[in-house]
Specification:
5 strands, mainly beta
């Protein structure tokens, strides 16, 4: 199935779990995750099943001033 991950189209197997996709894309903690514009708490990343066409945004904090 196709997903949009941080603006890029990727292909993953059907019934993929969100945390597996995030790990496969190389995201490093800490980060926040939104699927289709909705925040997903880290406590449920391991059980969140993705659907074809979902849009995933992984955001890492940045420092500056």
């Amino acid at each position: 199935m196709k997903l949009l991950f941080n603006g890029d189209v990727i292909e993953v197997p059907e019934d993929s779990v969100l945390h597996v996709v995030i790990d496969a894309q190389g995201a490093k903690k800490p980060f926040a995750v939104a699927v289709n514009g909705q925040f997903v708490p880290s406590s449920i990343l391991g059980g969140y099943i993705l659907n074809n066409g979902d849009s995933i945004e992984v955001l890492s904090p940045i420092q500056g001033g």
